[in-house]
Amino acid sequence: MLPGDRRVGRTWTLPRRLYIGEAGRAEIDLAVPGRDIAVAAILDLRGEVGEADEFFGRTTDGRGQLATVIRPLRRGRVRAEALWLRWRGPLGLIERSVRQEVGEDIDVVPNIRGIHDEALYFFANETLHGLKSRNIHGEGSEYDRLADFQTGMDNRFIDWKRSARHRKLLAKEFRQERNNHVVFGLDTGHLMLEPIDGTPRLDHAIRAALTLAWVSLRWGDVAGGCGFDAAFRGYVEPGRGMPYFNQLQRFFAGLDYHTEETNYTLGLTELTSRLKRRTLVFLFTDFVDSISAELLLESLGLMARRHLVVFVTMRDPLLVGRAEAWPGTFVRAAEAVVADDFLRDRRVVLERINRSGVNVLETTAGNVTPDLVNRYLLIKQRGLL
User: Fold this and answer.
1) Is 104 exposed, middle or buried (CB count within 10 Å of its CB: 0-12, 13-18, 19+)?
2) Burial 271-284, CB ≥16 within 10 A → b, else e
3) How many CA within 13 A on the CB side of residue 320?
């Protein structure tokens, strides 16, 4: 009474690609003529992926469907080697296990879905040029027009000659300049492999960089990027126009994970040599303590002499949690003291970086994208470039 292997038809549907931070869905359709059976299945996966869950289902009128999720841990490729099926006879006395070869590869790519929606959020209230046909008037450096002087305007912007000619106070209005160069430097070393909320720091950085790249290109700036660790891993020349976003996307998706310690002197020197004009550089990296950050401080100081550098780093939720945990036991108290020492050293390093002329953006992994875009808008509004 137990259906044989050939009597149990099965077809599977795997996702074409997986996105970091999201689970993909795999489905299996079963067909057992004349029988209703309970079936358990599991996918044999190879690659950087979470442990596959066994999933269950039951055929009704000879047909049924099973579904499971695939949780990628890193970018790259996941291979579905085989599908294991197990079903029992109607009396529950015996069961049969079958291995079905699959042999399909699934690409794991940066999670870029929703980037356009996130980026357009910053245009929603006419905050940027491009969505609406208007310019941003503020503390930019490009002259735009004359306007009636209003209470609260800076007296330095009064045009005295034209005011005398028209017999009323007129002030110069400026618009935020365009065609600025924006470059994203991504550390691909071992510190950026640490997962936060199940996703490596590097992938959080890539998503934030792509979102800001979309915004800056839409604004009219020129965007590029590079990757480095113990070696310089690649560089994409700054380009303009929304079609250039696809090239940036391919470049960032190709940045691999590396376990070597980052050589800041090599990476930042190589990047500086490729920048031909003053550039807004967003550097995504991290450090462990004040000793390991000495070379980073020196390299950042040299770069900040010619360029505007924003140092972007993400807080470690585990370290913060240990420092703020209630010290109910001796072990927890000791952990809190050690964690607080690490956080104090971190604050000292960040303060030194800030004093060297580098903008510091320390945020959480969940807020890195909006905080990054807001910092970019603040720099544009103040005309710091």
Assistant:
1) exposed
2) bbeebeeebbbbbb
3) 8
Question: Quick check: 369 and 207 in contact, CB under 8 A?
Answer: yes
Query: Which of 51, 70, 57 lies closest to 13 in space, CA to CA?
Result: 70
Give the SS3 label for residue 152: coil
How far is the C-alpha of 84 from the C-alpha of 216, rounded, in Å?
A: 48
Give the distance from CA 5 to its chain's centroid.
46
* DSSP code, position 77: E
Taking only the tens of pLDDT, the chain with its 385 residues reads: 778 878 888 888 898 888 887 888 888 888 888 777 888 888 899 888 877 778 888 878 778 888 888 888 888 888 999 999 888 877 778 888 889 899 898 888 777 766 766 666 666 544 444 433 334 444 444 555 677 877 766 677 787 888 888 878 887 765 555 688 999 999 999 999 998 988 899 999 999 999 999 999 988 899 999 999 999 999 999 999 888 998 998 899 888 889 999 999 999 999 999 999 999 999 999 988 777 788 899 999 999 999 999 999 999 998 899 999 898 899 999 999 999 999 999 999 999 999 999 999 999 998 999 899 999 988 988 878 7
Distance CA 372, CA 215 (A): 11
Tokens 């010290």, residue located: 327
Tell how far CA 234 is from the center of its chain.
18
Residue 173 CA, chain-centre distance (Å), reads: 36
- DSSP assignment of 283-316: EE---SSTTTTHHHHHHHHHHTTTSEEEEEEE--
3-state secondary structure of 194: coil
The DSSP code for 240 is -
